[in-house]
Write a structure and sequence with these properties.
Blueprint: E1 9-12, E2 15-18, H1 23-27, E3 39-43, H2 51-57, E4 64-66, H3 67-80, E5 93-95, H4 104-119, E6 127-129, H5 130-142, H6 160-173, E7 176-177, E8 183-184, H7 187-206, H8 217-246, H9 251-254, H10 258-265, H11 274-277, E9 290-291, H12 301-316, E10 321-322, H13 324-342, H14 354-362, H15 365-378, H16 380-403, H17 410-413, E11 423-427, E12 430-432, E13 435-438, H18 441-448, E14 454-462, E15 465-473, E16 486-491, E17 496-505, H19 511-558, H20 575-601, H21 606-631, H22 635-639, E18 644-645, H23 653-659, E19 660-662, H24 682-701, H25 704-708, H26 711-722
Antiparallel strand pairs: 1-2, 3-4, 3-18, 5-6, 7-8, 9-10, 11-12, 11-16, 12-19, 13-15, 14-15, 14-17, 16-17
Helix pairs in contact: 3-16, 4-16, 5-16, 6-7, 7-14, 7-15, 8-12, 8-13, 12-13, 19-21
């Protein structure tokens, strides 16, 4: 039974996460239950990690790394080294002594490393670096024989004939891409080319046995081609003559009409017009012959002349016309050549002469190109081993970091910069470290909104480049975050980008922020209503002034012509209106006095009442904020970016405060607290004191204080008013003298 590896876990984000720090952890990663993995898949692009390493792990090249692919990468790397602890060094220099000696593949990598060191002039060195392997691969790719089995015509400069032939083959049959990224000639294209050349040569050879009674193969081919060019049109002519001989009444309908010629006469004609070519090749006569010199349709005159010189005269002699029987004889003699011509191989090469095809077959260039390709393929094994060596060095450098950003999020919770963190956004007097690259903000927001985090989508621009990010504001006030506000985004390389907010997903950032939220919304609504009423009033006043100005202008124009009307009597105030206003004000004051009286009657319970009012206003907002803050997590944000998050990665208040940090004055700085431009609050205090005095006087006059003051105070006050002052005690009479 296989011994189970002893794992160590830590608690972060509300999830138990495995600690990966030793080579044994990497070697046994396949034993770890995937239900305990933080992520099960991640994209190869859009994260801060070496994309070349990710591409090597992505075996199916689908742009995503899944758990089985990562396990396979760990197992392969462990199988190549003697001690898996070297995979935790994070170094891009591989010690040759760390390679296993009991594995054929590992020994091949060792031999390739020594070969690379020898080419670098470092024979006997005990280590090879990633840069040296990459330099060797770059040099190998630029060589004519780089192991990919693809010949680049540019690298055949010493063989111009072969280079020209290679370019011709690539133009007709396509090309293959070499490991250097350049198009080249592959074995498949070379074989297809010469196969088609041989087929064309065989086709030419078959014509030697039957030249259709003509002296040469070239003449037979020309005669067959001339016959093919006019055969359908001549067949049409003889069919019309036969039908006219059968019935004379068919001659007129089978011939061009006067109306048709009249329509042609209205056009600008040329010999190549399709309307002319559609007419019979010659004048239709019942049982007539086909003229070969005179009376031929102009559109077909050249083709008929070619037929006469290449086919009719060599086979039938000099004729001025051709009967139906002679036409049949001509077709019978040229039928074998027509069949042979129709059997020409359909290849990308098109028409190739017999001499050219035979010259290509006899040149020996086919074998030379095949030898070059074979030589190139013989170097392939060295290229494969060099690529594997590069992969092993990359795994030694990056594998541990990738595991701590995939199986666990150690680097994120230890604030070391996780792979999914794109950089830092500075905006609204704070920095946001939880920023993620986004390919499609609209699609991302659909899922990311479930994170219960305040998210700001930003468009970032730098030197004509553009990217989109989403930043999480997890602490501080969000009153001044709005679409269109600008900030600066620093990527992981330290480059600054101009950032502009394009979309917001609003959620509470803290319970304290939720406490003041109702009051801020109320003040904001009051300000908006006041602004609307003021704007409406201003518009009304402006319209009234315009109307009055227009009336004054009209009056001044008619003043000379008509006497001024008597001044209107002053408008009197309606007594009913005044009474109604007084009743309304009295009702309002009565209600306010009643409320204030009940509030004062609470006496020592007034603070409790105030607390109850505050809780009634802010309590629901704080409760909703508390519920959302408990559900705030990282998972939906990453899921929307292509990750497959396995656990609920919570963002609590402490973590949120560390991800969004407000500006702080250094403790060692000296501050001058006097602000010459500070607002003056003296008037506010004066009005506050006046309001308190008015309320106190109102309470005294209404007798509310009698109900609030202690009974002992009331009794002493009453007795002081009603009890008479005590009578003076009379002095004692003097005693009589004895």
């Amino acid at each position: 039974m296989q011994q189970q590896h002893e794992w160590q876990f830590f608690r972060a984000g509300g999830v138990d996460q495995v600690t990966i720090r030793t080579g044994a952890d990497i070697a046994n990663i396949g034993q770890l239950d995937q239900k305990l993995w933080v992520a099960l898949a991640c994209p190869t692009r859009g994260i801060e990690f070496d994309s070349a390493t990710l591409d090597m792990i992505d075996l199916d090249a689908d742009g995503r790394i899944r758990a089985p692919e990562l396990v396979q990468a760990c197992e392969w790397a462990v199988s190549m080294v003697q001690d898996p602890e070297v995979l935790t060094t994070g170094s891009d220099v591989l010690q040759l002594s760390s390679l296993r000696g009991d594995s054929d593949e590992a020994r091949a990598l060792l031999d390739e490393a020594r070969r690379i060191l020898a080419l670098q002039g470092r024979s006997g060195s005990d280590s090879v670096s990633l840069a040296e392997v990459q330099q060797r691969l770059t040099a190998l790719n630029s060589m004519p024989f780089n192991g990919d089995g693809i010949l680049n015509p540019v690298t055949l400069a010493d063989h111009p004939a072969l280079a020209a032939l290679a370019e011709r083959i690539m133009a007709a049959y396509g090309s293959a891409q070499g490991c250097d990224g350049q198009p080249g000639l592959g074995r498949a294209q070379l074989d297809n080319f010469f196969t088609d050349v041989q087929t064309i040569a065989d086709w030419h050879a078959r014509a030697q046995s039957n030249t259709c009674a003509l002296p040469t193969q070239e003449q037979a081919m020309a005669a067959a081609q001339a016959l093919n060019a006019v055969q359908a049109k001549v067949e049409d002519f003889f069919a019309r003559t036969r039908l006219a001989a059968f019935d004379a009444s068919a001659l007129v309908p089978l011939s061009p009409s006067v109306e048709g010629y009249a329509a042609l006469g209205k056009q600008l004609l040329s010999q190549e017009d399709a309307a002319i070519a559609a007419l019979p090749v010659a004048t239709v006569v019942a049982g007539g012959e086909l003229p070969l010199t005179q009376g031929i349709n102009p559109a077909w005159a050249e083709a008929m002349a070619t037929l006469r010189t290449t086919a009719v005269e060599p086979l039938l002699g000099p004729l001025d016309s051709l009967s139906a029987a002679q036409w049949a004889q001509l077709k019978a003699q040229l039928a074998p050549c027509q069949a042979w011509l129709a059997d020409y191989p359909a290849t990308p090469l098109g028409t190739v002469a017999q001499a050219e095809a035979q010259a290509l077959l006899d040149s020996g260039m086919q074998q030379q190109l095949q030898d070059f390709i074979q030589h190139d393929e013989d170097e392939k094994q060295h290229s494969v081993h060099a690529i594997a060596l590069e992969k092993l060095i990359r795994y030694q450098r990056d594998l541990l970091a990738l595991l701590n950003n995939f199986v666990a999020f150690s680097q994120f919770y230890s604030r070391q910069g996780a792979a999914f963190q794109a950089g830092t956004l500075f905006l609204d007097g704070r920095s946001c470290d939880l920023t993620v690259d986004v390919a499609n903000p609209a699609a991302h927001a659909t899922l990311a909104g479930m994170a219960k985090v305040f998210l700001a989508y930003c468009e970032c621009q730098r030197n004509g480049q553009k990217r989109h990010i989403v930043a999480a504001f997890t602490a501080g006030d969000v009153d001044f975050l709005f679409v269109g506000r600008n900030g600066i985004f620093y990527d992981r390389a330290g480059q600054d980008w101009d950032a502009t907010i394009t979309k917001l997903i609003e959620n509470p950032t803290s319970i304290g922020q939720a406490f003041f939220s109702p009051y801020k919304k109320f003040v904001r609504m009051v300000e908006e209503q006041v602004a609307k009423r003021a704007a409406a009033k201003d518009a009304s006043v402006t319209a009234s002034l315009d109307a009055q100005a227009s009336k004054l202008v009209d009056v001044s124009k008619g003043a000379a012509a008509a006497p001024a009307p008597a001044a209107a009597a002053g408008k009197k105030t309606d007594v009913g209106t005044v009474a109604a206003i007084g009743v309304a004000l009295g009702s309002i004051s009565t209600v306010l006095v009643g409320i204030f009286g009940k509030f004062v009657e609470l006496g020592p319970w007034i603070p409790v009442a105030l607390l109850g009012i505050i809780l009634a206003i802010s309590g629901p907002s704080m409760l909703i904020a508390w519920l959302k803050l408990r559900e705030r997590s990282l998972g939906p944000i990453l899921d929307a970016s292509g990750w497959a998050i396995n656990g609920r990665m919570k963002i609590n208040l402490q973590l949120g405060n560390s991800l969004s940090q407000a500006a702080k004055v250094p403790l060692s700085a000296k501050r001058i607290t006097h602000d010459p431009f500070a607002d003056k609050h003296t008037a506010r205090w004066v009005w506050g004191v006046v309001a308190v005095l008015v309320l106190a006087a109102l309470a005294w006059r209404c007798g509310w204080l009698d109900r609030v003051l202690p009974q002992s105070w009331q009794y002493d006050a009453v007795m002081a008013e009603v009890a008479p002052p005590p009578a003076a005690t009379p002095a004692p009479a003097p005693s009589p003298a004895p």
